[in-house]
Specification:
It is a single chain. This protein is of the alpha+beta class. Among the domains are: 24-149, Agglutinin, subunit A (Orthogonal Prism), CATH 2.90.10.10; 155-290, Agglutinin, subunit A (Orthogonal Prism); 475-589, 2-Layer Sandwich (Phosphorylase Kinase, domain 1), CATH 3.30.200.20. It is built from twelve helices and 40 strands. The strands form nine sheets. The protein has an eight-stranded mixed sheet. Strands 35-39-40-38-37-36 form a six-stranded mixed sheet, sandwiched between helices. It has a four-stranded antiparallel sheet with strand order 1-10-11-12, with no helix packed on it. The longest helix is centred in the last third of the chain and has 55 residues, at 428-482. The structure holds 2-acetamido-2-deoxy-beta-D-glucopyranose (5 copies). One 2-acetamido-2-deoxy-beta-D-glucopyranose is lined by residues 343, 346-347.
Length: 620
């Protein structure tokens, strides 16, 4: 019941609390002390009123959580939760300073649901202070100088301004975002977001501790290969101090904005829109355009614009064809021809006999994971890599220097607008293939273009004629409608009695030339049975595309048949000329062709000699 508290009741509480505190204790409202605890549904408000700390619930749940929320906006926005995994079901919870000096959340039975969990604190001397930054700080005594614990160091799923996400190697500190199980269940989800040193620091998202997303290495300005345009624009600040081994990312911005790691593992930028009265969510662009880490396996390259998205690098083949073709690319690719330096080594000789390895340049790439670092400049990266047979690729970035890779190349992605040049080591035989293929390709394309050009030029002449006839046909059709008399030598006039069908009409009539509707196959092409919109049954002869008959010949045929209208002959109802399609439309003869009777041993009895004579007379 208590969980549903209207705003006005809350406001009343607030005023009540205010007056109580000021009257009775005269203490600030932003502090928990050993003698002043927070009982559900009380809360603290930071001095400037930006954040509040207290008990809250999510919609459709009676679970009570202690958390830090934005205080000045109408939408419940939680940026930190203490007892994520152990919420009391009722409003008996208390947030206080325990006897050992820790900040704790207790249930009605005084069981500890959550603790700041610091050892060796001075009892009765600690206080917890909620700052306007949204940081809850446990410190010794009144001065609050030495912080013993901070909510910023025990992050939930929200990355708010001035928080530092990162790693302090020497002090063994690591602050990362942890996703919630779902949007209204803050218990531990499977994703985490952090800034990890590696050899060159990168932002990473892990799923159940396994790499899921990499930003690409930090070059002092940007995370290369995954633009984070927001580095400058959105007030990000990155510290990567190799000497002190301190690596963190933080942000400060003039707008109300924060980042959240959602339960699907996506980093969302949330900006408050006062006009709409809600948060505007935007996915971190580089991340939504990114392949999952290692999706294409070793030596596999991901390209989201391709189908399938994974392919093996040149000179490599899928390790497991069957899995690969099923879309499970995780086992990756293997080198089909060993590197020259490997062959030389196996052969006992130090240097190759003139045959050395080369490099295949791939541009706009996200570089593979785990580069080795060297600060030598560009010209020498290649030589440096060639000197060491375990070097399988290199790349250069002005802010980083040379990057080298040995072992498997994992998590490469091809971009269309960003990234760096990546050089893959290949034996010269493979490179010769690549170069030859390129030359052959260019020559072939040139020949094809020339050929096409000639063909089109020839065709253009014919097209003109085609156009003329089509125009006349249309004219003829229009003329039938107005039943006007036109001169004998115009095709339009010859076809006066004919109807011009359009392709769609006939396709509909024959259920898209369904095989079930096929009546037979003539020299002209297949014949289909169809039904027009007015229930009239028709037979459609479709000129096979293979037929070399041109439009002119077709029109002559139509002309002849249309002149041969007789009640003993099948009636031509119309024709269709559209693009490459040419069709004749006849009335449908339910009794089929005469030969079906003449040559059928049973049916031929229907035709006595008198009838046959009449038919012969009729035809002639
Ligand atoms: C406190 O820390 C210990 C060991 O680090 C851990 O086992 C325990 O679960 C923690 N307790 C709480 C309430 O977080
Ligand atoms: C802490 O203070 C309370 C009252 O303010 C007192 O009852 C308690 O004994 C003190 N505890 C210690 C360990 O000093
Ligand atoms: C893909 O293949 C790997 C290695 O053979 C296997 O461990 C994994 O379970 C497969 N994944 C799926 C989704 O089939
Ligand atoms: C070893 O080198 C010799 C000549 O130097 C060559 O004929 C032979 O094919 C090489 N063997 C391998 C395995 O590459
Ligand atoms: C060759 O490269 C590997 C991996 O980068 C490295 O461990 C090794 O020390 C290098 N060897 C030489 C002689 O530079």
């Amino acid at each position: 019941m208590e969980s549903v508290i209207s705003d006005s009741v809350l406001l009343a509480f607030e005023i009540l609390l205010l007056s109580c505190f000021y009257l009775q204790f005269g203490t600030a409202l932003d502090t928990v002390t050993p003698s002043e605890s927070i009982k559900d549904p009380e809360f603290l408000i930071s001095q400037g009123g930006v954040f509040r700390l207290g008990f809250f619930s999510f919609a459709n749940s009676t679970n009570r959580y202690v958390g830090i929320l934005y205080n000045q906006i109408p939408v419940q926005t939680v940026v930190w939760v203490a007892n994520r995994n152990k919420p009391p079901k009722d409003s008996s919870g208390i947030l206080n300073i325990s006897d050992d000096g820790n900040l704790v959340v207790l249930n009605g039975k005084a069981e500890i649901l959550w603790s700041s969990n610091i050892t060796n604190l001075v009892p009765n001397a600690t206080t917890a202070h909620l700052l306007d930054s949204g940081n809850l700080v446990l410190s010794n005594g009144e001065d609050g100088a030495s912080s013993l614990w901070k909510s910023f160091k025990d992050a939930s799923n929200a990355f708010i301004e001035t928080m530092k996400i990162g790693t302090d190697v020497q002090r063994g500190l690591k602050v990362e975002l942890k996703s919630w199980k779902s949007i209204d269940d803050p218990s531990d989800g499977s994703f985490s977001f952090g800034f990890e040193p590696f050899n060159i620091p990168e932002l990473v998202i892990r799923n159940n501790n396994k790499l899921y997303f990499r930003s690409g290495p930090w070059n002092g300005n940007i995370f290369i290969a995954t633009i984070m345009k927001t580095v400058y624009i959105d007030g990000f600040h990155v510290v990567a101090d190799n000497q002190r081994q301190v690596y963190y990312i933080t942000h400060e911005y003039s707008r109300l904005k924060y980042y959240e790691l959602d339960s699907q593992g996506k980093l969302v930028e949330r900006t408050w829109d006062a006009g709409k009265g809600d948060w505007i969510n935007m996915y971190f662009t580089s991340q939504t355009e990114s392949c999952v880490y290692g999706q294409c396996g070793a030596f596999g390259m991901c390209d989201l614009t391709k189908q399938p998205i994974c392919s093996c690098l040149k000179g490599f083949k899928p390790r497991n064809i069957e899995e690969w073709s099923r879309g499970n690319w995780s086992s990756g690719c293997f080198r089909t021809t060993p590197l020259q330096c490997q062959r030389d080594k196996n052969n006992g000789s130090e240097a190759g006999q003139g045959d050395v390895d080369g490099f295949l340049k791939l541009n706009m790439m996200k570089v593979p994971a785990f580069p080795d670092l060297s600060s030598i400049n560009n010209g020498e990266c290649k030589d440096q890599c060639l000197k060491n047979c375990s070097c399988v690729a290199y790349a250069y970035d002005a802010g980083i220097g040379c990057m080298f890779w040995s072992g498997d190349l994992i998590d490469m992605q091809k971009f269309s607008t960003r990234g760096v040049d990546l050089y893959i080591r290949l034996p010269s035989s493979e490179l010769v293939i690549v170069i030859t293929a390129a030359i052959v390709g260019i020559v072939t394309i040139t020949i094809i273009i020339l050929f096409l050009w000639c063909w089109m030029a020839k065709r253009r002449g014919r097209k003109q004629k085609h156009k003329q006839i089509e125009l006349q046909l249309n004219k003829g059709n229009a003329m039938t409608k107005f039943s006007s008399n036109v001169g004998e030598n115009s095709i339009g006039a010859k076809l006066q009695q004919l109807r011009l069908f359009n392709f769609e009409e006939l396709a509909t009539a024959t259920c898209n030339f369904d095989h079930a509707n096929k009546l037979g196959q003539g020299g002209f092409g297949p014949v289909y049975r169809g039904t027009l919109g007015d229930e009239k049954e028709i037979a459609v002869k479709r000129l096979s595309k293979a037929s070399v008959q041109g439009l002119e010949e077709f029109m002559n045929e139509v002309e002849v048949i249309s002149k041969l209208q007789h009640r003993n002959l099948v009636k031509l109802l119309g024709c269709c000329v559209e693009a490459e399609e040419k069709m004749l439309v006849y009335e449908y003869m339910p009794n089929k062709s005469l030969d079906a009777f003449v040559f059928d041993p049973i049916k031929q009895k229907v035709l006595d000699w008198r009838k046959r004579f009449n038919i012969i007379k009729g035809i002639s």
